[in-house]
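Renewal narrative, Specific Aim 1. Our central claim is that a sequence can be written position by position from structural information alone. The example that follows is taken directly from our test logs and has not been curated for this report. It begins with the structure tokens describing the chain, in the order in which they were read.
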């Protein structure tokens, strides 16, 4: 659960240089391959990381500022921890870091009045790059680009969908 104001304060005025996903190296086949662990991803910043998770079998995202990526607890001791860069998929300009120009998320009420459940989030970066995160994917967090947030929002507001009452929270540098 998240306090949206605190989340916006932690994320809003920083630059992001990469998007990374944890995983492990599978060496069982003829060539080693990276296997992503899609319940977590990181926004890489100059001096720290923002860890974004979907806990257990939940349908919301959590946020935590950390010093560096952490080895997932569910990795076996003999599995080699690794990180993969997804930055080129979502940060399409050839610059070293990107300022956030807008954060949009759909939220519902948490267990306490000051907490909200982030049901999906979109980060918009300078140069019109977008990163959307949807925790309702069976395998973990689905990452997507431009247009995905608006599609998800329209889908969730259909009368036959059981999403309940969702509110939109938006941060911009002027807010």
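The sequence written for that structure reads:
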């Amino acid at each position: 659960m998240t306090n949206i104001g605190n989340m916006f304060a932690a994320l809003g005025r920083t630059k992001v240089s990469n998007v990374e996903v944890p995983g492990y190296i599978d060496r069982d086949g003829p060539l080693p391959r990276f296997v992503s662990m899609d319940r977590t991803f990181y926004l890489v910043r100059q001096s720290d990381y923002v860890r974004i998770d979907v806990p257990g079998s939940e349908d919301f995202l959590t946020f935590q500022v950390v010093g560096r990526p952490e080895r997932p607890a569910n990795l076996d001791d003999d599995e080699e921890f690794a990180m993969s860069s997804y930055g080129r998929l979502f940060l399409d300009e050839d610059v070293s870091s990107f300022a956030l120009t807008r954060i949009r998320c759909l939220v519902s009420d948490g267990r306490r009045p000051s907490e909200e459940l982030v049901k999906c989030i979109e980060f918009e970066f300078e140069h019109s790059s977008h990163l959307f995160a949807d925790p309702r994917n069976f395998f973990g967090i689905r990452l997507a680009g431009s247009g995905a947030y608006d599609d998800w929002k329209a889908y969730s507001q259909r009368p036959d969908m059981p999403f309940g009452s969702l509110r939109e929270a938006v941060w911009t540098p002027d807010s």
